[in-house]
Design goal:
With 384 residues, this protein is an alpha+beta fold. It has twelve helices and twelve strands. The strands form two sheets. It has a six-stranded mixed beta barrel with strand order 3-4-9-6-8-7. The protein is elongated, with a radius of gyration of 30 Å.
Length: 384
Amino acid sequence: MSFYLALKEVWRNKGRFLLIAAVVSLITVLVLFIAALSEGLASANREYIEKLNGELIVFQEGVQLSTTASRIGRSRIAELRRVDGVAEVGQVGFASAKLVPASGDGEFDVSLIGIEPGLPGEPAVFEGQQLERSRSNNVIVDEGVIARIGAKVGDTIRLKVTQGTDEEFYDLTVVGLTDRRQYFFQPAVFAPLLTWDKIRPQGADGQPAGELVSNIAVARLTDPSNLEAMADKIEQDVDKVEVVDRQTAWEAIPGYAAQQSTLSTQQFFTFFIGVLVVGGFFQIQTLQKVAQIGMLKAIGLSNWTVGWTAIVQIVTVNAIGVLIGAAGTLALTANFPVTVPIMLTGPTALASVLALLAIGPLGGIVSVFVLLRIEPLRALGMAQ
């Protein structure tokens, strides 16, 4: 009976209920879009560090885990490799460059990342081969570069960097393709560390002679489950370093925490607005049909049936709106250009949709209580 009454009213007043479903769908689009933007921005910031093939990241001490300020030299790397429990250590350096397409137009920024071939920090390739020599003009590019210029194994790419006051161009050969490894919102080009040190942006006098310096070191452990103890051990055995896990490292990226908290706050207020909108609509609906509910109760309809009818109606209309909004958001995000940091993952989308399905019952609970409290005689104007 409850389902019949609920769906019958929805069908007979299609325009009214379609309006609230449309509002719910717009709220759904907004919530899912914010969730996708939050995930996309977070991923564009942390992707390379998140996917590193090592458990611990070593920074210079006193730089607040800043990859740009940190400096780790070869002598420090040698000390790290001697620590008991450390299996392998790889140096990683970060710089920025511009990739110039073959046409010469539409150049774009890339993260130029220097890594040691065969050691932690080098990404696995899904096509082509890994880097083999420390001194070579071979590079690996990630899917961000592939999407923008259609790079293939064997192609030559040109990087433009500023050295001193001059712009220098370097032609590099793509030998491997890897998955998305963005760093600081830029697609990644991976070069051998010695090549990276040669071509990266630098002052007019070039790099001073001395040991090869990177920004961080990535350590792979013999026992990956022993993170905290190994981090403490490395800091005790090696001077002037700070050791953290990958998550701590990416959360320390400038602006990462503030960005995520801002977007989370926006999501919360959007959900709150949704609860108020749905609740307000069904409250108005309830006030408009007090007499009809009074009549149904007068002829014997139970409070149980009245309450379930309202709940079924709320859930149905809300679900229709959420489904329309979710479908629209999927179509919208699928057609954004690769330069827009939008990423709607399955877990994120599922969590948001489940939360949106809950705003209907939460918003409409007040109207259900109002329905249950309606007195038949008073509703029909017969009470004294």
